[in-house]
Backbone:
């Protein structure tokens, strides 16, 4: 019987680069303000209900990270300096970076303001070695913006993404077709891009801890337990990912979720758990100048039963407070509950452009 993985492979190895700017928002602020260089910086609101949008590497050493409540970040790092975000500046710098990408290939798939996939299999410079292309791009980014970028180079998007984290900050790594399967086999599934905490926990219950464990499960098992993600998990466990770099990728939704260490049983802790997720989603909307008309609440109970509840408004959401208001309505309809909640999620969909004036007004509130 033939291996189903054979249907996932491609004839000619592609050359994919994943470029990821290092601590992008915080690095821009340190670049523009010499007093911030070498110091722990958090971009975001410093008020009691504020949330960290980005953290410098100096702050990350203390455990500060994006989507963390500001009060928690300040407790972890008492010397933390909060800076209000300047999304117009971040977008302008991102445009400079994408102009550099376009010198090498039209096959550019932006994921956010600070990261993108590039397919350089056929490139405008006629360069054969993708690692050299990545080096050139990173050097041009540094010369143009005075900011550091890291890169991952591989034969597919999944491995390029994983490689870009290997030598951060200001480094790059390559995963070749020869060593791709072995790299995946040794990697904990909780570190796989595309496998969140909830899915990793579910895999843990099945005894799947590493890529090697995942590879031992057949396609039928993965589809039965993980649905439409099953074929994707089956492929990446073997170092295979045939997703194309899509220059005109249209994002359909923006979401964030969190699995709690202790099950939630009452309304107030549930709402508190949702607030950082709402802030994370809204920060992404602001940074990319988009919004949406529909918000969806995801609830997964202790027995892993899952429900979703959605609400659509007449115009795109204009603030995280508007999103929170709708989430409160949706969450209120879920309670009282008869079993604990292990995971909550927030998703914005029906996306549209966020007017510049709206962005400016919202930024002033932070």
Residues:
């Amino acid at each position: 019987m033939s291996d189903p993985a054979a249907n996932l492979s491609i004839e000619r190895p592609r050359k994919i680069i994943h470029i990821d700017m290092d601590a992008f928002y915080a690095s821009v602020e340190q670049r523009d303000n010499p007093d911030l260089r070498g110091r722990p910086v958090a971009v975001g609101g410093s008020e009691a209900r504020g949330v960290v949008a980005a953290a410098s590497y100096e702050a990350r050493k203390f455990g500060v990270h994006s989507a963390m409540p500001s009060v928690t970040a300040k407790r972890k790092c008492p010397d933390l300096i909060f800076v209000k975000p300047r999304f117009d500046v971040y977008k302008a710098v991102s445009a400079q970076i994408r102009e550099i990408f376009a010198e090498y290939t039209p096959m550019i798939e932006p994921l956010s303001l600070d990261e993108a996939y590039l397919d350089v299999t056929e490139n405008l410079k006629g360069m054969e070695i993708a690692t050299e292309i990545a080096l050139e791009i990173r050097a041009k980014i540094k010369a143009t913006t005075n900011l550091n970028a890291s890169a991952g180079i591989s034969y597919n998007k999944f491995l390029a993404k994983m490689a870009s984290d290997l030598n951060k900050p200001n480094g790059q790594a390559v995963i070749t077709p020869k060593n791709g399967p072995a790299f995946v086999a040794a990697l904990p599934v909780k570190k796989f891009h595309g496998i969140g905490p909830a899915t990793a926990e579910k895999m843990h219950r099945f005894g799947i801890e590493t890529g090697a464990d995942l590879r031992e499960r057949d396609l039928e098992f993965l589809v039965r337990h993980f649905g439409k993600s099953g074929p994707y998990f089956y492929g990446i466990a073997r170092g295979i990912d045939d997703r194309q770099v899509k220059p005109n990728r249209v994002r359909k939704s923006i979401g964030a979720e969190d699995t709690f260490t202790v099950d939630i049983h009452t309304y107030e802790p549930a709402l508190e758990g949702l607030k950082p997720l709402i802030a994370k989603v809204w920060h992404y909307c602001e940074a990319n100048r988009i919004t949406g008309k529909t918000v969806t609440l995801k609830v997964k109970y202790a027995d892993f039963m899952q429900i979703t509840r959605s609400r659509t408004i007449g115009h795109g959401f204009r603030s995280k407070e508007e999103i929170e208001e709708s989430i409160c309505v949706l969450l209120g309809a879920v309670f009282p509950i008869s079993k604990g909640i292990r995971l909550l999620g927030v998703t914005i969909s029906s996306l549209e452009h966020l007017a510049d004036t709206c962005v400016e007004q919202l930024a002033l509130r932070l």
Notes: The two ends are 60 Å apart (CA to CA). The chain has 14 helices and twelve strands.
